Amino acid sequence: MKLPFRLNGGTVPYGTYAAIAVAAFAAAFAAAFAVESAASSAFGGGKQSAFDALNRSRPLAALGSEQQCARYSGLPARWRDDPQAGMVHLHGGEFVFGSKLGYEDERPAGDGKTRVAGFWIDQTDVTNAQFAAFVKATGYISDAERQGGAVVFHTPTREEMNARDLAWWSWVKGAAWNHPRGPGSTLDGRMNQPVTLVTQADAFAYAHWLGRDLPTEAEWEYAGKAGRDGADLDTAPRDAHGKPSANYWQGVFPVLDTAEDGHAGLSPVGCYAANDFRLYDMIGNAWQWTRDVYAGPHQSHTNGDTSAVAPLGHRHDTPMVIKGGSFLCSRDYCVRYRAASREQQEADLPASHIGFRTVLRDAS
Questions:
Q1: How far apart are CA 318 and CA 316, in angstroms?
Q2: pLDDT tens digit sequence for 114-171
Q3: Where does the record place a coiled coil (predicted)?
Q4: Which of 160, 275, 353, 360 sits between 20 and 30 A of 14, alpha carbons compared?
C-alpha cells in the first residue's frame, strides 16, 4: 500500500513514514526502560496520594468497564445540586512537568519539577448530556453553529487519499456538538460520550456557568500522571493482560482501525479503568482543552493540521494547548496517547476529536 503523506515539506510513502515512526519511538522507549525503573503507584511505594480525604463519602462515578460506561447517563450524581458534582479533589504537590522521551515540545524545563496548588477536577470529560443541560439552561449557541460548520474526521478511501493531503479531515457544513456528523446527525445513543466539536470559548462558557475554569497545562498533566513518574508513562497504555487500556488507534492510520480496544471512534466516558487519582480517560478518546497558549519549542501537527481544511477566516487564531491524545493517536502516526503529550489547536476551531474537562481551584 503506497499512501502519500507529507513530512517536513516532502512526500513519503505512508508505509515508509510508519516504519520510521515506529522504529524511532521503539528505540527511544526501549532505551528508557533500560535505565529507568517502572513507575511508582500513587497509592504505593511510600508516596502520599494527592487523591485526598475530601473525596471520602462523595458519590464518585461507578465507571471503569464496558458495562458500566454503557449504562451511564452522562450526568454525574447530584448534578446541579452539588457544586463539585462529578469531580474529585487533588491536593497540591510537585511533579515532573514534561517528558524526555517524546517530542521536542514535551521536554522539561530544567529538572521539570513543578508545583501546583490543590484543585477539584472532573472525573470524566464533559459529556454531551452535561453540555446539553448547559445549552438548555442558558440558550448558548456554540461557535460551530455560528461558524456554520466544523472539522470532522472520517476514514478516507484510497481515492481520497490519492486526491489530497489530510484526506481524513473535512470541513463539514452544519456539523456542531449536537450534529456531530453534520445535518441530520443527532446525539441519539451518544449522551454519555465526550462533547466534541467545541472551541475553547465554548468550553470556557460551560465552565464559567458552573463557577469553574479550564485546567492549566500543568494542572492537567499533574492529574494525568497521577503521582507516577516512570518510563511506562510514555508507552501505549495496556493493562496486565496486554489489552489496550484507553481508546486510541490500533491498526494502520487513517485507513484501518482494528478496534482492539473495543471502540472505533469515540467511546462513552469511563469505559476503561481510572488512573490512580480516580480520573477516567485522561489518555485517549478525546483531546482536552486547557487554558494555556501553546508556547515553547513547537512541534508540527503530526495528527494532521485541522486548520488546513477550515475556511480561510478560521486559520489564524491563537494556538492553545490540548492534552491527552484521542481515538486517532496511533503508534505509527501521532504517538500522543501519553500524559506528557501536548498538541496545538486554534482556539476558535471546533473539531471532532477535541473535548474538555473542568477544574475548580482551592481558595488561595
A1: 7
A2: 999 999 999 999 999 999 999 999 999 999 999 999 999 999 999 999 999 899 999 9
A3: none
A4: 353
Give the cell for residue 324.
491527552
Q: Where are the beta strands (DSSP E) in 225-315?
A: 251-252, 256-257, 287-293
The CATH number given to whatever domain includes residue 250 is 3.90.1580.10
Spatial contact of 232 and 101, defined as CB atoms under 8 Å apart:
no
Residue 193 within any structural domain of the chain: yes
Cell 494527592 belongs to which residue?
50
- Domain holding 164, by residue range, is 41-361
Q: Looking at the domain assignment, is residue 290 inside a domain?
A: yes
pTM over cut 0.90 = no
Asked if residue 4 is part of any domain, the answer here is no
User: In the numeric block, which cell numbers belong to residue 201?
Assistant: 470559548
Q: Are strands 354-355 and 342-346 parallel, antiparallel or unpaired?
A: unpaired
Total domains, the chain: 1
Q: Roughly how many angstroms between the first and final C-alpha of the chain, as a whole number? A: 57
